[in-house]
Hints:
With 97 residues, the protein is of the alpha+beta class.
Amino acid sequence: xxxxxxxxxxxxxxxxxxxxxxxxxxxxxxxxxxxxxxxxxxxxxxxxxxxxxxxxxxxxxxxxxxxxxxxxxxxxxxxxxxxxxxxxxxxxxxxxx
Length: 97
């Protein structure tokens, strides 16, 4: 299943309701699973972003749908990156002319 790295920033709304964040994470985890994905890890980080999520989804379309749904709640903005394993990368390199 494809892997994704999602960089998240809290909005003003999200920081005002930060005490609710653990519950929102559990809700998001259940939504990911309902969409056929899996939350592999979620990190709270320092710096430009507030959270980094590592997920698996069945397709880019499902990952994008989840990111749109998450952002539409107004607590976060997201940037999602498709992450390739070393095995996937090696297979791509083998196809180079």
